[in-house]
Design goal:
CATH superfamily of chain A: Beta-grasp domain
Radius of gyration of chain A: 12 Å
Largest sheet of chain B: 3 strands, parallel
Strand content of chain B: 15-25%
CATH class of chain A: Alpha Beta
Order of helices and strands of chain A: EEEHEEEE
Number of helices of chain B: 9
Strand order of the largest sheet of chain A: 2-1-7-4-5
Shape of chain B: globular
Distance between the termini of chain B: 38 Å
CATH topology of chain A: Ubiquitin-like (UB roll)
Oligomer: heterodimer
Distance between the termini of chain A: 39 Å
Radius of gyration of chain B: 20 Å
Chain lengths: 66, 262
């Protein structure tokens, strides 16, 4: 399935949870926040929230800023 | 008031107590290690941070929180780069999920050249965020009417600019900053425009509760040394404010007594 992450199209094998997606991309789940189709995904739901084809996902973290 | 009364002089923002009155940004540093050293030298307890997309092509790239410990510093997520209320709210919801913080810095910009705040949009965003339970420290113009409206909405700190962001011009409108301080029941911090230590001291002598700065430290030739200078300037300015300065006179007044002259 194709999923849009941070504006880039990526291909993954279904079924896949948010947690599995983060692991597949080597992203530390404790240091980031995830938005799925404009809705926040709470950290507690990373294992249960499944990703579907066509989903738009934003993965953010803190960087330096004023 | 005793000489060491400043030890008990805490800054309280939204129920949280801080002993440092200097908040520093984490942008524009050569690297996160220099940033961490500057935060240490500044004695800061709060650092502002931005929320951005992770680097998908290099997940092992250094992350801010590997250098600046969120357990040691209070992270103040900002909405820098947001031009609408919706963008700001979306960004801070993500920040709250990333770190669990409700204390945030709202800045809604209106123009890329001046980086002046868009005040109608700032007011609207502040209202949305306060309703969602955020503790909103708000970057704003130095207009006392705007500042009052932000306080009435429920913002926990009012942060007028001293001069445009990154300009280093110092406090351009001390009269307005003073008016905002006199009318506000929540802390007032100068945010943006400080260039060097004396600028920070002037802001504090006016009665500001604190100063927020980024570029003045990050773009100094020696950022760590400047961070230290800013720490001293903020403390000196605060103490001078608490001490109460002497009255100004037009003519001289001798420091040595005239009685007993030979």
């Amino acid at each position: 399935m194709n999923v849009q992450i941070n504006g880039e199209m990526r291909e993954f094998e279904a079924p896949m949870s948010i947690l599995q997606l983060l692991q597949a991309m080597s992203l530390p789940s404790q240091k980031i926040a995830v938005e799925l189709n404009l809705e926040i995904v709470p950290k507690s739901a990373y294992h249960s929230q499944m990703v579907a084809a066509g989903d738009r996902i934003e993965i953010v973290h803190f960087i330096g800023g004023g | 008031m005793s000489a060491d009364s400043s030890k008990d002089d805490v800054l309280t923002i939204a129920g949280r107590d801080f002993s440092s009155r200097l908040i520093i940004g984490t942008g524009k540093y050569a690297d996160y290690a220099e940033n961490a050293a500057a935060a240490e030298a500044a004695g800061a307890e709060i650092v502002t941070v931005a929320v951005r997309r992770v680097n998908l092509s290099d997940p092992s790239a250094p992350m801010l929180i590997d250098y600046i410990d969120p357990k040691k510093y209070t992270f103040l997520p900002n909405t820098a780069g947001c031009f609408t209320g919706e963008d700001a709210v979306r960004t801070l919801r993500l920040a709250r999920e990333a770190g669990g913080w409700s204390l945030v810095k709202l800045e809604v910009l209106g123009d890329e050249k001046t980086l002046y705040p868009n005040m109608p949009e700032t007011l609207r965003s502040a209202e949305l965020l306060v309703k969602e339970g955020f503790d909103v420290m708000v970057y704003c113009s130095d207009d006392p009417i705007m500042a009052k409206q932000l306080e009435d909405i429920g913002c926990c700190a009012i942060m007028p600019l001293a001069a445009p962001i990154g300009s280093g011009l110092g406090v351009q409108n001390p009269i307005n900053i003073r008016m905002i301080i006199e009318q506000s029941k929540v802390p007032v911090l100068v945010d943006a425009g400080v260039g060097t230590a004396s600028d920070a001291a002037i802001a504090m002598e006016l009665g500001c509760d604190g100063v927020l700065m980024n570029t003045a430290i990050a773009e100094a030739k020696n950022p760590v040394l400047m961070a230290q200078a800013m720490r001293h300037a903020v403390i000196a300015g605060r103490q001078a404010y608490l001490a109460g300065r002497m009255a100004k006179r037009l003519y001289a007044d001798p420091s040595s007594p005239l009685g007993g002259l030979i």
